[in-house]
Each structure stands twice: as structure tokens, then as C-alpha cells.
């Protein structure tokens, strides 16, 4: 008997992780006078985390082309680990947030290799097939 993790659970995890990362990054804006490097990391962490939440509701037009790591479990997992490292500076809230982000990132990296986890629909690029050897045209057909 095999159990599967459905798309709704993955969606809830993505929204929760993106929200936690966004709030933790916003709280680092106070580091302007204390540690400029941490403050500067905030300007990278906020858009990366907020875009992860946005993808659960709407997929921007050219995102598959320019940020394809958002559309695989391995890419999302590595992104969550990176965000965990970027927001780990400071108090207990940020350390707990970083721990949750890293654990979610490790889980998503494992999801890439587990067949019981369903991919969300927006991971697939339109009607195009991303598998090797599944061409749209046969070798005999001419492309005009």
C-alpha cells in the first residue's frame, strides 16, 4: 500500500515556507546600521521568497525561461536552503525560521527522487514535453 503526497499539501508547504522566509527577511531590514551585509542579503531574499508564494496563485509569463529552478522540487529545495542561510542572522525567530527553511529544503530535495510525491501543475511547461526523446515532430516530418 503506497501513499501519495497530493498537490494541496505541497501548495500549503510552499505558501507557508515562502511566507516565513518573507517575514524573516523583512525583519532583517533593521540591520542597516548594524551589519550592512545582512541588510543587503534582504534585497535578494525578499523577492526570491515572495515569488515562491506568488507561484502558488499565478505563474508569471517568462519565468520558466529565466528562473527554471522554481519548477522542480530539487530547485525549490536548494532555494529554501539558500533562503534559510540568508535569514539566519539574529534572534530566536530568525534562527527558528532558518531551521524550518532548511528542513523544508532538504524535504523538497528528497521529493525530487520519491515517486509518491505529485508535481504541481505549474511545474510542467505549457504543452511542451521536457522529457528526453519525446519530440513534437517525427524525423520524417518537415518543419516549415
Automatic annotation (TrEMBL):
It is found in: Membrane. Signal peptide: none annotated. The keyword Transmembrane applies. The chain crosses the membrane at residues 12-32, 38-57, 69-92, 98-117. One of its GO terms (cellular component) is Golgi membrane. GO terms for biological process: vesicle-mediated transport. It is a multi-pass membrane protein. Keywords: Membrane, Transmembrane, Transmembrane helix. This is Tvp15 protein. The lineage of its organism: Eukaryota, Fungi, Dikarya, Ascomycota, Saccharomycotina.
